[in-house]
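Q: Given only this backbone (369 positions), what sequence would you predict?
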């Protein structure tokens, strides 16, 4: 055990000495470059690069030094290879016009230094905003409108059933969650496009008072959607790499496919109480499987070197009826036992999310060169 520990200590010490030696070599190589002694520089630092003995910052300095040496010793092929390795180590490496020579700027301009594409992951919460298309129900829908997420169609949180009775919605905000993975590409002047997939779990709450205060039905309708959003985004200050916070706006559309739908809770109180224990609205064909929607939103990116954190808000507007009206009354358990019939509605959502955007680089010489 002591031998193993001693060997480990010695190995760590040797690595530290070697790393220190590589740092000294790099410092000496930079001094030689300033003095015009170029030919021996590659051999001074090459084995340190090959063995990954440099820190990240030292590797960038070393690869930039190699690029400069090859430029000024007229080794064009090696200079190009060294520049690509520099851009791999430091994507979007920034040149300094006060320090870097024009020859390096000229070579740099011949290469793709921006991301080929970006991969964006977002996770968020949504609150449903059902918009009623046509009103149906087992109650007198004029005298006793339904509450959706605690509000009537006109936005009221209560109404007077008669001179002595006022009824209120008890449902919540219909909170769900969603996750989205997009592939994005910058087009020009801060405009980007993105396409990918989204998983969304959503729900809405409905409270019906069946024309009297002590007889009511409460239902929570839950949906699981697979969506394929396509968006266009404009980012303000996109090309300013010194700017940390980048606001943006975006809009797009999505094809929406319903994976599952049903009542997570459904009960009637008053008279003979009743609870519907299970439901599958897809199996009973009471909801439509496919839909499409438009959405828009705004957000802000926070720059992490070449990657980003994002915070955004969006609004989704479904264009087709969620409910299959032709099968509205075919489920006798809901219609007669529960005393509930779905109104025609479109499912809209207010969403908030946080995300991370990762930039993918592949430096190469531009075609025009």
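A: Predicted residues:
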């Amino acid at each position: 055990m002591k031998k193993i520990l001693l060997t480990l200590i010695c190995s760590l010490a040797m690595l530290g000495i070697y790393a220190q030696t590589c740092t000294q070599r790099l410092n000496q190589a930079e001094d030689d470059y300033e003095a015009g002694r170029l030919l021996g520089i590659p051999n001074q630092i090459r084995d340190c690069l090959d063995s990954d003995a440099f820190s990240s910052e030292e590797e960038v300095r070393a690869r930039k030094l190699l690029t400069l040496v090859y430029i000024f010793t007229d080794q064009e092929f090696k200079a190009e290879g060294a520049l690509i390795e520099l851009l791999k180590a430091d994507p979007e490496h920034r040149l300094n016009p006060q320090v870097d020579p024009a020859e390096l700027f000229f070579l740099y301009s011949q290469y793709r230094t921006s991301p080929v594409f970006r991969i964006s992951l977002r996770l968020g919460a949504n609150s449903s905003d059902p918009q009623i298309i046509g009103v149906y129900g087992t109650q007198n829908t004029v005298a006793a409108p339904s509450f959706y997420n605690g509000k009537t169609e006109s936005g009221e949180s209560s109404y007077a059933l008669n001179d002595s009775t006022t009824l209120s919605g008890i449902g919540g905000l219909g909170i769900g969650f969603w996750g989205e993975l997009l592939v994005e590409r910058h087009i020009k002047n801060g405009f980007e496009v993105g396409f990918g997939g989204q998983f969304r779990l959503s729900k809405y709450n409905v409270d019906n008072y069946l024309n009297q205060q002590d007889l009511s039905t409460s239902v929570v309708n839950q949906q699981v959607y697979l969506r394929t959003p396509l968006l266009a985004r404009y980012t303000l200050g996109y090309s300013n790499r010194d700017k940390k916070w980048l606001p943006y706006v975006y809009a797009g559309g999505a094809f929406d496919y319903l994976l599952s739908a049903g009542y997570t809770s459904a009960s009637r109180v008053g008279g003979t109480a009743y609870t519907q224990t299970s439901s599958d609205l897809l199996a009973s064909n009471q909801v439509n499987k496919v839909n499409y929607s438009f959405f828009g939103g705004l957000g802000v990116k926070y720059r992490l070197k070449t990657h980003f954190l994002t915070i955004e808000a969006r609004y989704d507007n479904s264009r087709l009826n969620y409910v299959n009206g032709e099968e509205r009354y075919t489920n006798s358990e809901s219609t007669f036992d529960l005393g509930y019939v779905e109104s025609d509605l479109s499912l809209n959502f207010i969403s908030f999310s946080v995300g991370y955007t990762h930039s993918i680089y592949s430096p190469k010489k531009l075609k025009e060169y």
